[in-house]
Design a protein that fits this description.
Two copies of one chain form a homodimer. The first copy, chain A, contains seven helices and three strands; from the N terminus they run ααααβααββα. The first copy, chain A, is mainly alpha-helical. The first copy, chain A, has a domain of about 80 residues: Arc Repressor Mutant, subunit A (Orthogonal Bundle), CATH 1.10.10.10. A three-stranded antiparallel sheet of chain A has the order 1-3-2. The first copy, chain A, binds a DNA duplex through helix 6.
Amino acid sequence: MIKHESTVPSCECEELHAELIEKNRATMPDESTIYDLADFFKIFGDSTRMSILFAIDGAPMCVCDIAALLGMTKSAVSHQLKILRQSDLITYKKVGKNVFYTLSDDHVRDIIEKALEHIKE
Amino acid sequence: MIKHESTVPSCECEELHAELIEKNRATMPDESTIYDLADFFKIFGDSTRMSILFAIDGAPMCVCDIAALLGMTKSAVSHQLKILRQSDLITYKKVGKNVFYTLSDDHVRDIIEKALEHIKE
DNA sequence: CAAACGGTTGAACAACCATTCAACTATTAT
DNA sequence: ATAATAGTTGAATGGTTGTTCAACCGTTTG
């Protein structure tokens, strides 16, 4: 087919709907808030991390137990635990050679619960 | 007395805390549910998609407007809109040359709201 | 002390994913 | 009909990220 070549790559919507754009921009959160929000959700966006959260939801578990439960290596689990720790979603307590991990917040349960409701439809 | 065999690189936690593992495993959701949940959160785990959701939260917008508001190309926005569409988070309506996108669900607002509360602490 | 175990960490690799680019469709205006 | 605009799409690319591997630290046991 024949290519059209004289096209100018510009959009005139900005002039057409300038008011709408400004109105909607005004109701949006700060850019940094949006980034924080996306980063927060990113933590939950991995099935391994999600599994870990559910695993320790019932009772605190050590790394070795979590690895056995999920059928993964201790290393892989530990890497993900670090991410969950840095996000303040879990806390840990050393007992002898073991490190027991616990959910740090009921807030987390709420969000996951809401999402579960949305999924089941 | 039987002497210890040569060292085997295995973890003995499974034997030590077998009961705990089985108890916690019992309270976990299906594997497929966890995957669905992670996939759901993955959608929100990108600042561009999050920005789009906030942008059209106030009022429906066309692709060109969204692109102008976010300072992105129409192509990049369109790609993300496709993902949001496939997840049933947004709906669209064609009006002449334009395509207006809208949030499809109040459920989505709830989840984002909960997460915002968690962030602001 | 030395060996063994639970756990952590950094580097390397592979898989995934968001943006860009170019070409395409569809609708409207000249 | 032709050109311009709004939007979509597939391939390519560069960045991100989860897992593996090996080495390491801290605690406990012989």
